[in-house]
Each structure stands twice: as structure tokens, then as C-alpha cells.
Write a structure and sequence with these properties.
The protein contains four helices and seven strands; from the N terminus they run ααβαβαβββββ. The protein has 167 residues and is an alpha+beta fold. It has one domain: Roll (Nuclear Transport Factor 2, Chain: A).
Length: 167
């Protein structure tokens, strides 16, 4: 039996709400530096890429950051927390409302715009990175969303200094 239009609208709104809540938690854990929580938001065999828009639009594979699987996410988190030395700064994620592209009950395809601001102590805030997330979510245990794939397609041609923290 086909789904009634009203039921379909409720389903899309529920998916959007879940993705928006996920994205709010995602930005919060990165802003607080809780990399264990960040890693737990991905599937074990996930794909996480930060790629310039120019390369993405041209179908070029070169990424600024490409992490395959939670093991590589853990390596990055360890490097950020224990081995990288840089001038301290705070970051703040502002993530727009998600647009649900599809939800088949097992996988949600979604996109959302983001902006990451950076503030160095004693300085003014600056725009660090702006772009869009292209996401594939799957349902984990008890219906929790997990990222199977997150592509961070950024608009800038340059990244201030270097990309240290995940976007």
C-alpha cells in the first residue's frame, strides 16, 4: 500500500529533525574537543573527506583530508590531541538546517551548509572554513544515526594556515 502524502511529510520531518540534532551534537563535540564522541558518530568502515569545491565539482579525487574507517579517525584525533603543536584557538561550528535528499528506512542521504569560525585568545573571531556537508547516515543500535560517509566540500580556495581539527 503506498504511503499517504501526510505520512511521507511526517517521515521527512522526522528525518530532518534527527539529522539536525545529530549535526548540532557533531559541532558541539568538535567545538569542545571531545574527539572520542566525534569518532563514535561514525560507522567502523566510514569515509570522511574534506575536499575543495573546485576538486569536487571537477570530479578530482585530491582531498585536503581523507580518513577511511574509525582507525584513521582515531589516528587523527590522537595527532591533534597529543602531537600537534600550534597556537591555541577555539572553533565554533554553525550548521544550517539539513535538507533530506532520501530516506529509505535504512540510509538517509542529506546535505547541510556549515561555517566554522576560529578565535585565537586575545584576538577577533574569523571565518575559518565554509562549505556544505554531503552525508550518508545509517541507523545504528536503537535507531541512533551514524555517519557512513561525510564529505565536507569547502568553498574557499585556501585554508587559513593549515587544517588541524576536523570540520
Amino acid at each position: 500500500m503506498p504511503m499517504r502524502p501526510h505520512a511521507l511529510a511526517v517521515s521527512i520531518l522526522e528525518s530532518q529533525y534527527r539529522v539536525d540534532q545529530f549535526n548540532a551534537a557533531y559541532g558541539d563535540c568538535l567545538d569542545r574537543g571531545d574527539f572520542d564522541a566525534w569518532i563514535a558518530m561514525f560507522t567502523p568502515d566510514c569515509l570522511y573527506k574534506v575536499i575543495p569545491r573546485e576538486n569536487f565539482d571537477a570530479g578530482l579525487p585530491l582531498c585536503t583530508m581523507a580518513l577511511e574507517g574509525q582507525g584513521m579517525l582515531k589516528d587523527r584525533a590522537y595527532g591533534v590531541s597529543n602531537t600537534l603543536f600550534h597556537a591555541p584557538y577555539y572553533q565554533r561550528h554553525v550548521i544550517g538546517v539539513a535538507r533530506i535528499l532520501s530516506d529509505d528506512g535504512q540510509t538517509i542521504q542529506a546535505t547541510a551548509n556549515y561555517a566554522v569560525f576560529r578565535t585565537k585568545p586575545g584576538s577577533v573571531s574569523e571565518v575559518y572554513n565554509v562549505g556544505r556537508y554531503l552525508d550518508r547516515f545509517v541507523y545504528g543500535e536503537r535507531g541512533a544515526l551514524l555517519l557512513e560517509e561525510r564529505l565536507c566540500v569547502f568553498d574557499s580556495e585556501l585554508i587559513l594556515n593549515s587544517l588541524i581539527y576536523p570540520i
